[in-house]
Structures are given as C-alpha cells and as structure tokens.
Amino acid sequence: MVKAKQHNPWFWIPCLCAAEEIPSAVVIYVALLMFLQFGASETMAAVYGGLLFLPFLLKSFLYLGARKAAHIKWRICAVELLVFFSLMWTAIYLSDSVVEEWVLFLHLFALSLLCSWHELYSRLYYHSMLQPREQHIFRSTKMAASLVALMLTYGLLIIVAGFFEVFFRSYQKAWAMESSLVAGVFLLFCVLNAVVLHAPHHPLKLALHHPQYDYHIFDRIRKTPNIMRVLVILFLLLLPQSLLFQVRVFFLMAPVEQGGLGCSLQDVGFAQGTVGVLAFSVGLIVGRYLTLVHGRRRLFWPTSFALTLSPFLYMLMALYPQPDNLFLICCMAFLAQLLFGFGLNACGAFIAHVSGERYASIVNYIYVPMVAALMLPPMMLSGCIVTELGYSDYFTLSALLAPLALTALAVGRVKDILFAKEL
Questions:
Q1: Under 8 Å between Cβ of 262 and 323
Q2: Which backbone phi and psi does 199 adopt, to 5 degrees?
C-alpha cells in the first residue's frame, strides 16, 4: 500500500509542484521587495529582477542535453538539497553582515539557477513517468497544484516578512528569519520528494525517445513562416504588461509623496501576492476553459484585448491615488491581474504557430524562452523609465501602448497567419 501510494501521480505531482513554486516565489516576486528595502534604486531593482529571469529563459535551450541525464530522481533530490543550502546561505548572510545589494543579487541569482534546473528536471521526470495519455489526464492536477502553491506562497511570504519586520523592528532581521523559514519548509518537501519519487522504469533518454521530443528551439523558430512579423507583434502585445510587471510592485511600496501608495509589506503581500495571484489564476483558468470550448481562433481577439487593459487600471490608481483604502487597492489589483491571466491565453496562438501540432506536448519549452525573451528588455528598463517619468506619466504611457498593439495585430493580419490552417 505504501509503495502504491508513493507511485501514485495524484500524490507525487502536488509534492513536486510545491517544491518548484516555493523557491521560485522568492526569486520572481519577493526579491524585488528585498532589493528595494536594502537600498537599491528602482532602476537597479528592475535590472536585478530582470536578470533573475535569465536562468528560466535559458533552461529550455539546455533541454536536449538535460534529457540524456541518468538517475533523474536523485538529480532532483540533489538540486533540492542545494536549494535548501542556498536559502540558508542567504539567511546567514542577511543576519550576520552589512548587506550589499549586489551581493544579495548574487545570492539570489545562484538560487534562480538552481530553481530553473529543478523545474527542468521536474518536467523531464513528469514526462518520463507518464505516457502522453496519462499526461493529458493529470494536466489539470498539475495545473491546480501549481496554482494553489502560487496562491499560498506569494502572498504568505510577504505577509510573514511584514510580521517579522514589526516583531524584530528591523527589516534585515525580518528577511533573515524569512529565508530561514522558507528553507525549513522547503527541507520538508526535499524529504517528502525523496520518499515519494522513484526511479523511472526506463532510462530517461529512452522514455523520451520519440520524434515529438527531438527538436531544437532555434530550428523551430527559423523554419516558422512569417516569424519576424509574428515576433514583433507579439512583442508589442506583451509590451504594456512587460512595463507593468515589476513597476506595479514599486508603485505599491513607494511613499505617497513620491506618487506611490505607501503600502506596508503586509498590504503588498495581501493585495498583490494573495488577491492578485488568485485573480491571475482565475483569469488563466477561465481563459483556458473558454479556449477549449470555443477554440483559440474565436478567443484570440477577446484575450488580446484583455492583455492590454491592465495599465489603464494602474493609470487610474496613479491619477487618483487612495493610499488609505486597501479594499479599493485590492479590487483594482484583482481586476488588473484577472485581465492579465485571461489575456495571457492569447499567447497560446503564437506559441502553437511556432511549435506546431507535433510539439503540443512540449509547448512549455518554447513558450518560456519566447515570451520571457520578449518581455525581459522592457522589464529591465522599466525602473529607469519610471524614475524619469513618475508613476502617473509612466502608467499613462503604458496605457497608450495598448492601442498600438491592437492596431499592429489588425494591420499585420496576424490572425490570418496564426490560423491559416483553419481558413
């Protein structure tokens, strides 16, 4: 019975997904707040935050080499153990030293590298343990586990850090305790995964020896018809959200006299980390469901339109700030993230155009590098731009880019290119 339970995908998939999301939340979201509190300017915080995405962008290019690895279970366990040591190393540095922002970045970049490798090995393990038909059955389980981990992790980490800051009366001690706590929780998942995961029945390179897995991203992009037009318009479509991605956190944290909302860590964790992530998850799920029911072609314009709307909400928040009204802040964050999650389904048509039907089961290996590469430059420049313009003008600029993206979609006749087979 114990052995059957250990091999049950209903059990090991949530454990593996939770181990992915906990440290990733530190790198993707929590790190921005840490940089700001340890003295980084908005310009440098945006650059550091963007650089932390690089390992997640590049990991897909290492896929062909990583899939030949043997002993995939023990590689996952080894990487998880290194993640634990990295979190503890960061906690020790935060508690015992005068913190330099660039040294903190190096700590977090090392953690980001480990997180990206863990995600890569986890997906390879998932594909090696489950046949394509089984992957389809457990796809909703995997997605639900990831979203639940997101909702519990992103907001909770910030709220707890805010509590520690009040309790210790020191943000440095607060973040040191936070890193120690995350390391302790993650160690539990290390032990749990060491127990519930088991070696694949076949070597990984044999389990994935199928034509649909033999691809190279550069080859797929190079051979795709009208690829330059598709990439330029996808960049324009993602541009408003790219500019918004990190600055929305800066806006919540910035003092009122600087045009921000002056939120505490707890407020940021609740509004953006909990309410925002919940809304993003709901929007993503609703968009995927409607796409399955009505088809990607019919949902293309509604999702594309939704993807460009979030900056208008932040523009209203900047023009008519209400820093003492947490309920209103949460409502606006909910709507903005709901539109973002729903609109992100528009990218599926672009990715399917590049990957093709033959590569549907490994679309993530193309989705991540393409979308992240297009979003990364504006994300890294966003801190510098908002410093020069101020929040009101910055969000107004982001909102004005939305009509440009929709016009490019129409004039470029991208819909005809993406759905040429259906016409």
A1: yes
A2: -65, 140
- CA dist 242 and 334 (Å) reads 18
Contact between residue 368 and residue 232 where contact means Cβ atoms under 8 Å apart: no
Residue 315: how many CA atoms within 13 Å on its side-chain side? 18
**pTM assigned to the model:** 0.88
pLDDT in tens, 2-20: 444 446 788 888 888 888 8
Structure tokens at 387: 């410093």
What's the rounded Cα separation, in Å, for the pair 178 and 172?
10
Cα separations in angstroms, 244 against 10, 142, 363, 381: 36, 28, 25, 11
Buried b (16+ CB within 10 A) or exposed e, 61-78: eebeebbeeeebbebbbe
Instruction: Give the integer Cα–Cα distance in Å for 159 and 151.
Output: 12
Q: CB of 231 within 8 A of CB of 224?
A: no
For 93-119, the pLDDT digits (tens) are 998 778 888 999 999 999 999 998 888
Closest alpha carbon to 181 in 161, 154, 166: 161
